[in-house]
Design brief:
globular; 6-stranded mixed β-sheet; 9-stranded mixed β-sheet; D-Amino Acid Oxidase, Chain A, domain 2; FAD/NAD-bd_sf; alpha/beta
Length: 440
């Protein structure tokens, strides 16, 4: 609903009609940002207190370089091998679960050359759109989130991996992405304070990074100042329908040790709840294949005299390293498919910590205490592509989820696309591969 139309309501929460966004993660926030700019009245419903966004502790990388989806040929074999290593970068917790088995079958079906070649231009386009929107946002007053365009290093420990990554770089060049193939000596010119022990590196010139904590904080503050309503500690319990429209969203909110039940009149509903999206989709009888992939990160102060300058990925270990503002550096990684849980597996964290000196022998970091470890549940679709679009079942429902490790990187583009979908505008890019009901 545009702001020149108001609803009256007797709700104790003072809720009115308009656009309801479920989820206050970075996808929900950017959806609200672009809809608010168009004059819509927006309410964001969040099950938590808003402090545990999956984006807060991630690597902060904006990565057009990541144009290859998670589901690729050979990943199944690697996954089986890694399952027997408690410190490996990819792990599927063995369990009898029909949703997991169904997801695994779809993953296997998507992990083929034809599907990957279809996906690559789509991922490139949404990544480049997102980067352009970040560049625009970084020029906005009062929106400092330490956005830097320093590129990204893909560090290869072995000659075999280096040769494979050179082939990926050639694919990137064909897609219009600029790369440089670097020897160890050339790499040292980019990182003069450390001595990498690698076979070589690929430098992706067009990548960028930011400080996620600042971004999320500034987005929330901006939206609150613009009149976007946040309902924290609020669970969605159901919906009311009229034909093929969702008319009301039923919610339960905890306020001062009391529970209040209410309804939100809803002209358009957006599901942006990350790994929890399938639970809401189930309420609406919509199948949304997805598994939560847990990732971990730890943040330290930079070592004086041995600073890393450019974000990097330790390729074989699948560890991301991001120098951030305030002299901080973040190490993150792993993909642990283990369901919706808040357990911290310190073996996975140990795998991240141990990988760093394998690539930078003179860069040592201590194993963190458990309470210093951040984790996030990344929403993984079987084919490695997000779900973005209207549903066929309900004409006023838009789903924006399933971005896996790319949520922060793709968030502005996703938010912009959501706004265009709501406004029935032509989309900035082709979103045909992102249809939410592509598995129905």
């Amino acid at each position: 609903m545009k702001k020149d139309h108001k609803y009256n309501t007797d709700s104790p929460l003072g809720t009115g009609g308009g656009i309801t966004i479920i989820g206050s993660g970075v996808i929900g926030l950017f959806s609200a940002y672009y809809l608010n700019k168009q004059g819509y009245e927006v309410t964001i419903v969040e099950r938590s207190n808003g402090d545990d966004s999956c984006s807060m502790g991630n690597a902060g990388m904006i990565v057009p370089s990541h144009f290859i989806p998670l589901a690729v040929p050979g990943m199944i074999e690697k996954g089986i091998k890694w399952m027997f290593n408690s410190e490996s970068p990819f792990y599927v917790k063995p369990r009898l679960n029909l949703d997991l088995l169904s997801w695994g079958l779809k993953f296997y079906q998507a992990a083929n050359k034809k599907q990957v070649e279809r996906a690559m231009p789509a991922l490139r386009d949404i990544s480049l759109l997102s980067k352009a929107l970040y560049q625009e946002l970084a020029q906005t007053p009062d929106f400092d989130f330490a956005f830097q365009e320093k590129g990204l290093m893909m560090l290869c420990k072995t000659e075999h991996s280096f040769e494979e990554e050179i082939e990926v770089a050639h694919q990137a060049n064909e897609l219009g992405l600029k790369t440089k193939v670097l020897s160890t000596k050339e790499l040292h010119e980019y990182e003069p304070e450390v001595k990498p022990d690698v076979a070589g590196a690929i430098f992706y010139e067009g990548d960028a990074h930011l400080y996620p904590n600042q971004l999320v904080k500034n987005l929330k503050k901006h939206l609150e100042n613009k009149g976007v309503k946040f309902l924290y500690n609020t669970e969605v319990t159901g919906f009311e329908f009229e034909k093929n429209e969702i008319k009301k969203t039923k919610i339960t909110q905890k306020i001062n040790n009391t529970t209040q039940h209410s309804e939100l009149k809803t002209q358009n509903l957006i599901i942006a709840t990350g790994s929890w999206s399938p639970l809401l989709a189930d309420m609406l009888n919509i199948g949304l294949p997805m598994q939560a992939g847990k990732g971990y990160s730890v943040t330290y102060e930079q070592n004086q005299g041995k600073k890393l300058n450019i974000p990097s990925i330790l390729l074989e270990a699948r560890v991301a390293i991001t120098p951030m503002s305030d002299n901080l550096i973040r190490f993150g990684g792993t993909m642990e498919i283990g369901g919706l849980n808040d357990e911290i597996n310190m073996n996975r964290v140990r795998g991240i910590i141990k990988a760093v000196p394998n690539y930078f022998p003179d860069y040592q970091i201590d194993m963190p205490q458990k309470e210093k470890v951040w984790y996030g549940l990344r929403p993984c679709s079987p084919d490695g592509l997000p779900y973005i679009g209207r549903t066929n079942k309900y004409k006023n429902l838009v789903i924006a989820s399933g971005h896996a490790m790319m949520g922060l990187s793709l968030a502005p583009a996703t938010g912009k696309l959501v706004q265009e979908i709501i406004d029935n505008q032509n989309n900035s890019i082709d979103i045909g591969l992102y249809k939410p009901e592509r598995y129905d």
